[in-house]
């Protein structure tokens, strides 16, 4: 085993879960000798690790926007002493790229003088933001995006209630290779609201400014779901582009083909591409805290007058 691992790759593809599983495998009470096996999931150690209650499995995550030096110093202090009860202490640093410069330099000292019974797991989807000296002292494992089939197959295991198989496939498409993102889409209930949302945005006539402003106010004012709604619109217009090119097999909203066919008839390919550009820009502006109603007005204006 290496004393430090760097798990890099897209969000929601299992980096954190793998680190936790590794920690459980190391410390499972049913494991015999030094042979590394899958954790049993039944013993006291496994259950406490899964519940986040094991004293020798520590997680560090950003406090606000950053991982601060005091959090890293807590790791260093823990590494000086042997584990309380486990074979190995596991320290999981989630979003490791969020370390401040002081924190990163402090962690580097720990990586240069590793403890024999402490393993570090650095998790990030932005490895380019880590110091080269930190990366060089870790064993790096790259995680790739999952296929839609893998996501759809795994979703029932993490959902609390059963979901129709057709909706699982739609959620997998929205996840774009991320099980975590697909799970969030399903849990948000946004997939059940797609038709109503699309109808509201597509029904605004080009010559009715009042209806345009009323719809913009409805979706822009105090709307915490606007980012997710923009994602629905982006996927819909991307589906129009695919369906218009006779590539219907790659359409994500496959359960809304009637709505997609109407869109193909209404919007030319050039208009669809212009609307997609507007939606992508709108999502970026929303993250920069631009006024939400102004964002929705711009989107509606482009949809009702795409030329």
From TrEMBL:
Residues 191-303 form the DNA polymerase III delta subunit C-terminal domain. InterPro entries: DNA_pol_HolB, DNA_pol_III_delta_C, DNA_Rep/Repair_Clamp_Loader, P-loop_NTPase. Its EC number is 2.7.7.7. Keywords: DNA replication, DNA-directed DNA polymerase, Nucleotidyltransferase, Transferase. GO terms for biological process: DNA-templated DNA replication. PANTHER family: DNA POLYMERASE III SUBUNIT DELTA, REPLICATION FACTOR C / DNA POLYMERASE III GAMMA-TAU SUBUNIT. This is DNA polymerase III subunit delta'. It comes from Lujinxingia vulgaris. The gene is holB.
């Amino acid at each position: 085993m290496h004393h430090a691992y760097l798990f890099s790759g897209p969000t929601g593809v299992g980096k954190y879960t793998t680190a936790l599983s590794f920690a459980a495998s190391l410390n499972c009470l049913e494991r015999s000798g030094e042979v590394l096996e899958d954790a049993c999931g039944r013993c006291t150690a496994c259950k406490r690790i899964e519940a986040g209650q094991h004293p020798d499995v520590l997680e560090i995550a950003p406090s606000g926007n950053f991982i601060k030096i005091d959090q890293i110093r807590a790791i260093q202090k823990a590494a000086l002493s042997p584990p309380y009860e486990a074979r190995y202490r596991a320290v999981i640093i989630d979003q490791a790229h969020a370390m401040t410069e002081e924190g990163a330099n402090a962690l580097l000292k720990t990586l240069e003088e590793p403890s024999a019974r402490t393993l570090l797991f650095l998790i990030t989807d932005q490895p380019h933001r880590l110091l080269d000296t930190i990366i060089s002292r870790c064993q790096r494992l790259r995680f790739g995006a999952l296929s839609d089939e893998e996501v759809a197959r795994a979703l029932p295991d993490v959902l609390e209630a059963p979901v129709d198989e057709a909706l699982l496939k739609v959620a997998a498409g929205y996840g774009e290779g991320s099980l975590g993102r697909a799970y969030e889409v399903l849990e948000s209930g946004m997939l059940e609201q797609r038709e109503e949302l699309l109808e509201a945005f597509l029904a605004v006539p080009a010559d009715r400014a009042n209806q345009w402003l009323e719809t913009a106010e409805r979706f822009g004012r105090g709307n915490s779901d606007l980012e997710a709604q923009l994602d629905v619109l982006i996927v819909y217009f991307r589906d129009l582009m695919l369906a218009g090119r006779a590539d219907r097999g790659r359409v994500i909203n496959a359960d809304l083909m009637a709505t997609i066919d109407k869109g193909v008839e209404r919007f030319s390919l050039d208009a669809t591409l212009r609307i997609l550009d507007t939606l992508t820009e709108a999502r970026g502006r929303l993250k920069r805290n631009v006024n939400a109603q102004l964002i929705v007005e711009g989107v509606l204006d482009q949809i009702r007058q795409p030329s």
